[in-house]
Design brief:
alpha+beta; NADH Oxidase; four-stranded antiparallel beta sheet; globular; 4 strands; 6 helices; binds flavin mononucleotide
């Protein structure tokens, strides 16, 4: 069993993957494990979509890029503006050619849903690292609006995609990006 401190150090955002699939059993295990995350009122609002098909991954990447570019046009201060050059590059795959994508969604109407999903995503990424797998949260892959694509993925109009996570066997694990010291506003004894 891997030590928890070591696990925290080992989990990195991986953007280079081997060309080999992740066995469905492992994915099911990770999904079961991440539902052990806490959720507000134990609502467990997370819903999962698993995509292992390369054409689908490319299609979703292209769609999300186009969707973000449209949002940038509509709102010039949109957060994705700083990634515009990548989004306009036809060769850029927001999912870095990873073999697997897990979308974690929750009902749009549930205010605490994104918080719960973020916790499940963290558990998922730690579970992946414990098994020698790499993962990365891909915020640029969350813009999935086309009704036909959403329907094919099993997403209802009331679902919100919060956490797109790529998964696979790392070709390279990057070094830990530097962390700032915790900003402790007060420590009251
Ligand atoms: C909400 C969120 C969105 C992210 N979106 C992207 C993304 O679209 N593309 C990407 O390459 N990394 C993305 N990341 C990964 C971060 O860049 C990464 O966590 C950060 O650089 C720290 O590196 P580490 O995860 O290895 O500690 C995202 C992370 C989070 C938490």
């Amino acid at each position: 069993m891997i030590d928890f401190q070591e696990l925290l150090a080992r989990r990195r955002s991986v953007r280079q993957y081997e060309d080999r699939p992740v066995a469905p059993d492992i994915i099911h295990e990770l999904l079961r494990e991440c539902t052990l995350a806490p959720s507000a009122g134990n609502t467990q609002p997370w819903r999962f979509v698993v995509v292992q098909n390369r054409e689908w991954l490319r299609r979703l990447s292209d769609h999300s890029k186009a969707c973000l570019l449209a949002r940038i046009e509509a709102h010039p201060n949109h957060f994705a503006l700083r990634y515009e050059a990548y989004l306009r590059d036809p060769d850029f795959n927001v999912f870095y050619d990873a073999p697997c994508l897990i979308l974690i969604a929750c009902p749009k109407a549930l205010k605490t849903g994104p918080l719960d999903v973020a916790l499940a995503a963290a558990y998922f990424m730690l579970g992946a690292a414990a098994r020698g797998l790499g993962s990365c949260w891909i915020g640029l892959g969350a813009c999935i609006e086309a009704p036909d694509i959403r329907a094919e993925l099993g997403l209802t109009p009331g679902d919100q995609v919060v956490a797109p996570l790529i998964l696979g066997y790392p070709r390279e694990v990057p070094a830990t990006p530097e962390r700032n010291a915790p900003q402790i506003l007060k420590f009251i004894n």
